[in-house]
Amino acid sequence: MNLPEYTNIKMRKTHDNEYEVLDVLRQRFVALTPEEWVRQHFINYLVTEKGYPSALLANEVELCVGEKRLRCDTVLFDRMRQPQMIIEYKAESITITEKVITQIMTYNMLLHVDYLIVSNGNTHLCMYYDTEKKSWEYLSDIPLYNQLKRNIGK
């Protein structure tokens, strides 16, 4: 993966000989899937390398559209509990395509955040919505938490 090594990751084996990993945000063990492996490494990267407060990050955030239920992989909230960023993870074997971008844009039709990130552990795409230009811009890197631009009054 194209992420810093996560040396303190906690895993365990279940009675069924399956592996689980500790989700540091939900504070519980979850099934160790390839996507979950990327999620836990990416969260660690945001917190340890980019300064994102873990208290403002939430995993598996449910969204409802009529009868349909969707789940954002991770959402970053501001201190007023307003969503600021959506992060979508894919397994390392999954190529980030237009379909993945469409998926995260669908979530954003409900949350209206300024930042979107998609990662498969190797490729990380970060987009920022420029309110003046009224368009999405790809950023060359994932910003530090203290560099995030916030739209007051949203």
Describe what this molecule looks like in 3D.
This protein is α+β, with helices and mostly antiparallel strands. It contains 2 helices and 9 strands, in the order βββαβββαβββ. It has helices at residues 34-48, 98-111; strands at 11-13, 19-23, 28-31, 57-65, 68-77, 83-89, 115-119, 124-130, 135-139. It has a 6-stranded mixed sheet with strand order 4-5-6-7-8-9, with helices on both faces. Helix 2 links the parallel strand 6 and strand 7 (115-119). The radius of gyration is 16 Å and the shape is globular. The termini are far apart. The mean pLDDT is 91.
Which key features would you list for this structure?
154 residues, alpha+beta, six-stranded mixed β-sheet, three-stranded antiparallel β-sheet, 2 helices, 9 strands, 19% helix
